[in-house]
Amino acid sequence: MSSAPSWKVKLLYDGQCPLCLREVNFLRRKDNGRGLICFVDVAADDYDPSRHGGVTFRAAMERIHGVLPDGTVLQNVAVFRYVYEVLGMGWVYGITKLPGIGQLADWVYGIWAKYRLQLTGRPDLITLIQNREERQACGAGDRCRLETSGTDT
Length: 153
Prior knowledge:
Layout: E1 9-13, H1 18-31, E2 37-41, H2 57-62, E3 65-67, E4 73-75, H3 77-86, H4 101-119, H5 125-138, H6 142-148
Parallel strand pairs: 1-2
Antiparallel strand pairs: 1-3, 3-4
């Protein structure tokens, strides 16, 4: 018999994104050890979509996702709105509940999501996916790339 999780939402984030990490670190401080938010780094090589609402690495890298204990998957500004509500700061995103404002916020977020890798100086999504698949196929993390690069140090 399994008990209900103590967390209210899993926040799927890109642990390699400097701006994402700023937000996550802020939210961790606001969570203050209560465990209300389960932070899941989708950039980690052991990220498993089957444990996180079926959200694939590609989907998680394309836009933010949150997973509720019942398996419901949230996307876009709804994730931020829910996380902030859980942490007692719902007023921050409260305006996005208004008709039109929520859609506008999602549209603006969509632009950010589309260009965030480029804006943060990272490779494009296809390259990140290929690199991830190579690491997973190797099973040895960064050692594989170093061992097969043909360089002697």
